[in-house]
Amino acid sequence: MKIIDFSGSDCRHCYKCVRGCQVSAISVRDSLAVIDEERCILCGQCLDLCPQHAKARRSELPAVQKMLADGEQVVLSLAPSCQSLCDVPLPGQAAPFSLGQLTAALRRLGFFQVRETAEGAVCVTGEYQRLLQEGVRDNLLTTCCPGVVSLVEIHYPQLIPLLAPVVSPMVAHGRLIKQQLGRQVKVVFAGPCLAKMAEAKDPRNHGAIDAVLDFGELTAWLLREEICPAACEPEPFDNEEPGVNRLYPIRGGILTAIGVGAGGQSPAAREANGRCQSVDTVAAAAADSPTVHYRRLTVDGLQDCRELCQSLLQNELHHCLIEMNLCAGGCINGPLMPRTQRSRFRQQLDYQNAIAPKAPHPDLIARPAQDTPFTAVFRDRTPTAPLPTEKQLQGILARTGKKTPADELNCGACGYPTCREKAVAVFQGRAEVDMCIPYMHDQAASLANLVMETSPNIVLIVNRNLDILEYSAVGERYFGKSRAQALQMKLDDFFDPHDFLAVMDTHQNIHGRKVAYPQYDLVTLQNIVYLPMQDGALATIIDITAAEKKAREEYARKLETIEMAQKVIDKQMTVAQQIAGLLGETTAETKVSLTKIGRILLEDSEEVHI
């Protein structure tokens, strides 16, 4: 089930998401980034990191709208972090609104009930109290954050025994609602968490949640329906007061809820809660065992969570109740929380001020836990991928010029902390050889230098100020300046830059233009193209002086041949004319003679007849 997907057309080989993914869950195949679902914990950091906005997540809003259109009874489970939505107006609306007004507005979308997920958190808090009362675990990790659960199951499976076997408030709430209203009721969760989408579809949760929306989808839906929360009359949620359990979304909120005693299942647990407030420890008291004091520890942010896991693997911590949140600051800084101008620190303070740390409604505390199971089962989800032999690893490293340990820069530019880890990823098909940026840079520089040093043509790159940025070695033969000298000069120190300026101004390239430089006894054929990234121009200047000279000589030979032919023709014409003249005179004389002969013959004939 793909929750995050990439747009191949927008992915630009920057590897920023690969570098930013702390669990190496982004692979590169055919030069495009791909989510490795076996490794992904859905922290959502890649959504914010991508400079091209090439990543998108799957939306279940159409499915929810279809439920409502089909007349289903749909209950909205609203994450307590929705309190942060009320502090600022929605886009295009003038005033902020209260939780009661938001509840009323959401009902107008067609939801059968609007309830607080914190209602499920009351049940979860009770389960934690029960575990603390039993006191059989050394360390206990909270499991409200599905991203944390995935982090442990996939990347630190040795720590699975430390996970509290308790479902998240979302799953607990879904189970509770379906137990109360019937399995036919659809439960839709709305919150700021991307990982909730995968948690809702996890078969281990038996369909407790039918769909997941984020706050941005909800508010955009309200705007499309022209529903203004600030104009609605406040309405209460369809649940009893969850009290301090509304603090779950902020840093330390779970421990605070446990400390106030929300959901304790026995007088001993409630007494332990009271001690927690005064001595900053959570004490688990059992009737037949000595009191075990748990130190409280709050860890948030993926990097800190990973460091904590390493510490636990090294057996450095004991008797700790550890609240873990994948998002820095807690759920109010979730990846799908609408961003405001406020910092997360200000947001946390505002949230704390809005929520009173009071005990929940007695009916919620008294609800027997056995009516609805809130236990969770975890499993090892470590990705199974083949590992290369040392020989194979060395072969991959050698393909990027790393033939000795000194060649392994471990710069992390490819997204992997070490060259060897990247080589392993290449072997497993999760990375590509040419992701090594220093190596590709050296290759590009080497090829560029090769072109500049060996090209038979003059190659020039200039910027808009006509500074020479590149100048091929052959230029010295034509212009009398070495590359080192040329890189300190401007183009107009060599010749008129009119064509270069025209290309940079119009962005219209020039191809095959003949340009002569008499001062250098040089005739050239030029191609000049615009470089948008540099706002400059690149020119290849081909020396055609010899060809032009040869062409001129050939032209001169043709002219000489034509002239000779013309002389012959002229002479022939003269001779012809002379011949014609002579023929004309001879013909006239012959005519006169023949005429005389004719007369004589006629005269002789007349004398005979007389």
Short précis:
This protein is of the alpha/beta class and 610 residues long. 41% of the residues lie in helices and 16% in strands. The protein has 3 domains: 59-371, Rossmann fold (3-Layer(aba) Sandwich), CATH 3.40.50; 386-450, 3-methyladenine DNA Glycosylase II, Chain A, domain 3, CATH 1.10.15; 455-547, Beta-Lactamase (2-Layer Sandwich).
Polypeptide structure, described:
The longest helix has 65 residues, at 545-609. The chain is elongated, with a radius of gyration of 44 Å. The protein contains 21 helices and 17 strands. It folds into 3 domains: 59-371, Rossmann fold (3-Layer(aba) Sandwich); 386-450, 3-methyladenine DNA Glycosylase II, Chain A, domain 3, CATH 1.10.15; 455-547, 2-Layer Sandwich (Beta-Lactamase), CATH 3.30.450.20. 36% of the residues are buried. With 610 residues, it is an alpha/beta fold. The strands form 5 sheets. A 5-stranded antiparallel beta sheet has the order 14-13-17-16-15.
